[in-house]
């Protein structure tokens, strides 16, 4: 569960290392974000030679959280840290590679959101494995 103010690790090669959640884009019944949701973030730690800046606001897609996720088949999945991918304001993916694995719940989210399917397609092709 990602709340406002949570620290997240960026797992692509856009140049950012750590980020902080500013707000949640789509709030449902609960005031937190889970896997597959978009959040507004600002960067806390990054490398200087890449295409990201510290004072700008970016959009992040959560690909892994450090909280137990129960699946339909009864299995539970948990990461050691909170992970996200970095997008700009026009939902363009800023990296060209995804480090680590991505959860299958993002595919379910991509089917529910009809207008952002092309952005999810790039993530599926860039990632090496799914859990």
Automatic annotation (TrEMBL):
Molecular-function GO terms, alphabetical: large ribosomal subunit rRNA binding; structural constituent of ribosome
SMART domains named in the record: Ribosomal_L14
Pfam families, A to Z: Ribosomal_L14 (PF00238)
Top-rank taxon: Eukaryota
TM helices/strands, residue ranges: 56-77
InterPro entries reported in the protein's UniProt record: Ribosomal_uL14, Ribosomal_uL14_sf
GO biological process, one term: translation
GO cellular component: mitochondrial large ribosomal subunit
Keywords of the record: Membrane, Mitochondrion, Ribonucleoprotein, Ribosomal protein, Transmembrane, Transmembrane helix
SUPFAM superfamilies: Ribosomal protein L14
Family named by the database record: Belongs to the universal ribosomal protein uL14 family.
Protein name: Ribosomal protein L14
Organism this protein belongs to: Rhizaria sp
Gene that specifies this protein: rpl14
């Amino acid at each position: 569960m990602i709340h406002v103010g949570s620290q997240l690790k960026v797992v692509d090669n856009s140049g950012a290392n750590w980020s902080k959640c500013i707000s949640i884009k789509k709030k449902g019944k609960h005031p937190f974000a889970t896997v597959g949701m978009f959040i507004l973030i600002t960067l806390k730690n990054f490398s200087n030679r890449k295409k990201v800046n510290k004072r700008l606001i970016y959009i992040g897609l959560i690909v892994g959280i450090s909280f137990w996720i129960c699946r339909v088949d009864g299995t539970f999945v948990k990461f050691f840290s909170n992970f996200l991918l970095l997008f700009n304001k026009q939902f363009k993916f800023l990296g060209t590679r995804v480090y680590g694995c991505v959860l299958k719940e993002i595919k379910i989210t991509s089917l529910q959101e009809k207008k952002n399917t092309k952005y999810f397609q790039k993530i599926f092709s860039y990632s090496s494995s799914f859990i």
